[in-house]
Amino acid sequence: MTPYAAAPLGELWMVVAVTAGLGLVVAALGVGVIWRLRTRSIGVMLAVVVVVAVSATLAGVVVGIMEMIIDGPVKDSVLAIVAVGGLVGLGAAFVLARMVVRESRRLVAAVGATPFTAPRGLPAELQTIAGSLEEAYERERALEGARRELVAWVSHDLRTPLAGLRAMAEALEDGVVRDPATVSRYHRQMKLEVGRLSAMVDDLFELSRIHAGALRLSRVRIGLADLVADTLAGAEPVARAKGVVLTAEAAASVPVEADPGALGRALGNLVVNAIRHTPPGRTVVLRAGVDAGGMACLSVADWCGGIPEEDLPRVFDVAFRGEAARTPTAEGGAGLGLAIAQGIVEAHDGTIGVVNDGPGCRFDIRLPLLRS
Predict the structure, then answer these.
(1) What value does the mean pLDDT take over residues 204-220?
(2) End-to-end distance of the chain based on CA atoms, in angstroms?
(3) DSSP letter assigned to residue 119
(4) Mean pLDDT, the chain, integer
(5) Which band of pLDDT confidence, cut at 50, 70 and 90, is reported for residue 49?
(6) Which residue has the higher pLDDT, 29 or 276?
(7) DSSP line for 130-188
(8) Residue pair 167/188 in contact by the 8 Å Cβ criterion
(9) In the chain, what's the furthest Cα-to-Cα distance?
(10) pLDDT tens per residue, range 248-306
(11) Which entry of 86, 156, 183, 233 is 20 to 30 Å from 358 by CA?
(12) Under the phi-then-psi rule, with left for phi > 0, alpha for psi from -120 to 50, and beta for the rest, what region is 346?
């Protein structure tokens, strides 16, 4: 290779090295500036990014021109072209940055408005954020409405037994009731009302833990047949008092990983709800097995006559009883049992649903099957 050929190659490597060094220096300064301005407006950060990118490019181009064998008017012309191109690039970049900032400010203004409505025509990322925010606001509004309904209904449900307790306590205190039989009946009734209030408070506490994500599960390997047997034994006295027949059909081995106490409570809530809505002399059936999709399945079928189609999506709503009158019956609750069951099942990575089936409805719990 001749000395004439080796010289341009050496100059080229020097230009590359100097350009890379200048680019790294400018980039490092830009990162430092962005870090210091990370809490400022997105417009400021975009401006810094644009300046850094254009400065690094122009620095490399200028070094290359200065090191090349270009002199006189030609070099001046090339430098002028580079300078104009850089200014045009900066101007165009700032215009685009202002457009992005304007769109982000539209989103910020929409977030501050009440009610929130996602603006349309935003860039894809901002539109995704706006859609997620709109869904979150809708969920929050629905939860707030449910909370208000819950407070109103529970206040009514608490007021009724408390009024009865107060009346009986005043009658006993004032001596209005004296005969032993009536006094004994009052004491039994007071104990019953206290039990109802205690159960209602327990349900409210459990529901609050579920909504707060504070439900702690101690999962172990259990068989659904054992869970069905335990639930059947616990609900038998309630069914006998109502005159309802309880039966069970459980496969021999359906293993799942679950908290026996929590899942038992969810299943027990479904069974008690089924007994409550089944006429005397009819049957409530518990089943455990594996469905066609390979999921462990628990089902509770009753004889309630079915649920109106428009009410099916609301069955698991807090305080929903499916009744025009919200006054609880003697065996009724605050309408929290199904909402609690849903929260427990979903905490087990399962699903719960209800369908009309035959003479009544059927609640289905599906859980991941534990395979060997």
Answers:
(1) 84
(2) 72
(3) P
(4) 79
(5) confident
(6) 276
(7) HHHHHHHHHHHHHHHHHHHHHHHHHHHHHHHHHHHHHHHHHHHHHTS--SHHHHHHHHH
(8) no
(9) 129
(10) 998 878 899 999 999 999 999 999 999 999 999 999 999 999 988 889 999 999 998 88
(11) 233
(12) alpha
| Best CA proximity match to 242, nearest among 297, 201, 284 | 284
Q: Determine how many CB atoms are found less than 10 A away from the CB of residue 260.
A: 14
DSSP string, 245-280: EEEEEE-S--EEEE-HHHHHHHHHHHHHHHHHTSPT
The single residue listed with the structure tokens 């290779």 is 1
- What was the pLDDT predicted at 235? 93
The residue type found at 325 is A
Q: 203: which 2 tokens?
A: 């349900």
Tokens representing 333 are 């609750």
3-state helix, strand, coil in the chain (%, to 5): 65, 10, 25
pLDDT, position 142: 76
Q: How confident is the model at residue 11 (pLDDT cuts 50, 70, 90)?
A: low
Who's near 161: CB < 8 A, 6+ residues apart? 193, 196, 197
Q: Which helix (H) or strand (E) holds 103?
A: helix 73-112
Q: What percent of the chain has pLDDT over 90?
A: 28
CA distance 61 to 78: 10
pLDDT of the residue at 81: 65
Question: Strand, helix or coil at 293?
Answer: coil
Task: Determine the Cα–Cα distance for residues 113 and 103; give it in Å rounded to an integer.
Answer: 16
User: What integer pLDDT is reported at residue 288 of this predicted model?
Assistant: 94
Q: Which helix (H) or strand (E) holds 230?
A: helix 224-242
Interaxial angle between packed helices 337-347 and 260-276, expressed in degrees from 0 to 180 and rounded to the nearest 10: 150
284 exposure class (CB count in 10 Å sphere: 0-12, 13-18, 19+): buried
The residues that bridge with 362 in the sheet, in sequence order, are 301, 355
Nearest CA-CA partner of 121 in 99, 136, 139, 94: 99
Phi, psi of 141 (to 5 degrees): -65, -40
Q: Name which of 33-37, 38-42, 306-310 the model is least confident about.
A: 38-42
Query: Taking the CA atoms of the chain, what radius of gyration do you get in angstroms?
Result: 36
pTM of the model: 0.61
Find residue 297's DSSP bridge partners. 289, 366
